[in-house]
Amino acid sequence: MAEPDRRTATACFGGLLLVGAVLLVVDGVRLRGAAPGAVLGPEAVPLAVGVLLGVVGAALLVRALRTPPGAAAETSGRSWLRVSALVAVLVAFAFLLGVLGFVVSATGLFVAAALLLGAPHPLRVVGYGWALAALVFLVFDRLIGLSLPAGPWGF
């Protein structure tokens, strides 16, 4: 059996993102129940992420459908190895989240994903990853009031 080309992989991934978007939006709608007078309720983030995920999924599907069947290059074994490593990093993030806390785990996820996808400056990637994870932690924990795992260091 021949390996799928990029067109097929892009279409499958776009479809998967659309399914995830629908699930997020449906679950977000079920979270209604903001405190009286609150600007944002618990449904705000899942709805926003679901809509963005749907836009990306639809764009990938359109791109895949517009690409002529013979124009997409075959994926190599190395590409599948990279995807497998990304999945392993995501699984490690899920397991380490409760132990190391959100900021450290998310930084590791960001750094590993960026390096696997070819980021040119590893030290900058660590700095960007740490800053992004800390910002997300502050927004969720302090502004929205949704607790993220703090880990042994309190962040």
From TrEMBL:
N-terminal signal peptide: none
Keyword Iron annotated: no
Keywords: Membrane, Transmembrane, Transmembrane helix
Membrane-spanning intervals of the chain: 44-65, 86-119, 125-144
InterPro entries cross-referenced by the UniProt entry: DUF1468 (IPR009936)
Occurrences of domain DUF1468 (ranges): 17-149
Name of the protein in question: Tripartite tricarboxylate transporter TctB family protein
Species this chain originates from: Saccharopolyspora cebuensis
Organismal lineage: Bacteria, Bacillati, Actinomycetota, Actinomycetes, Pseudonocardiales
